[in-house]
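Posting this for the archive.
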Amino acid sequence: ANKSDVLSGVDADLKFNKPELRISIDRLKASELGVSVQDISETLQLALSNQRMGYFTRSGKQYSVIGQVERSDRDDPNDLTNINVTNRSGNPVPLLSLLNITEDVTPPTLYHYNRYRSATISSGLAEGKTIGDGLKEIRAIADTILDPSFRTALSGASKDYAESSGNTYFAFFLALILIFLVLAAQFESFIDPFTIMVTVPLAIAGAVLCLWLFGQTINIFSQIGMIMLIGLVTKNGILIVEFANHKQREEGMKKVPAVIDAAVGRFRPILMTSLAMSLGALPLALSLGDASTSRIPLGVVITGGVLFSLILTLFVIPAVYTFLSTKKKKSVYDTLNMKETETAL
């Protein structure tokens, strides 16, 4: 992680910097010298474990009785040579001759997360990198180094980012579904709403292109802007499709002339509303100051997405409409109303 171009200042709270001695009993030698393992362990416990043996009261105060040799006699590993253990014959045996001692280092503190022993890796981001880039990099490193027995979890700002990103994706697709259903109910068709929804990928493509051109990244703020684009750009398709359907029903025009006439006739309102939304979001894209990091991606997405969709909608929507739409006829209700009007006249 320290060699990564995305991360900086990588640190871990699990540091192996506490020296310790690992003591194991040489059972074979202890058996040969007639010393039981229990006697060895009890001797070590009484000499070094700081075990409480009992209490006594003096001058109205209670004191603990601690079984342990003096600190000056246990500060050095070689002090074990001064401790003896009695064998079955009653003869003293040097304790050190029955032990295997190895030096090791351990962490001074063992941390836990969700009842598991854990190590927390903290890191900053290199200049120009986002939390998303950092998470992608750290996950790639974890997949390379850690085996399947390890588990990872996010915390802090990284956890908030991951959760909010997941919720944003859900909100994006939910908005698509709801708008499609509303349009299907309005147009009484599944084809016309699909034609209108073609404006959404055009706007998203324009938003991503503008983010790349202006050196911005896809973060929580730009994702919110993309959700807003769904509602902002579909109105362009609604204007063209609704006007083309009206031309077919009321004037009996064919699909191609009807949609061309609709694109030409609706060009001015589409242009005015799109420019109004783009210019309204332009101050966000040009904002300065400490909080500009959050405002700029939002403004860039809205401005770029709306303008990009404006240009392509006038060409793509008529083409899709010509290919998918069916010939529109007057409804039975409208025909009956017209006959009743003619009869009354």
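The first strand starts at residue 7 and ends at 12. The chain has a mean pLDDT of 81.
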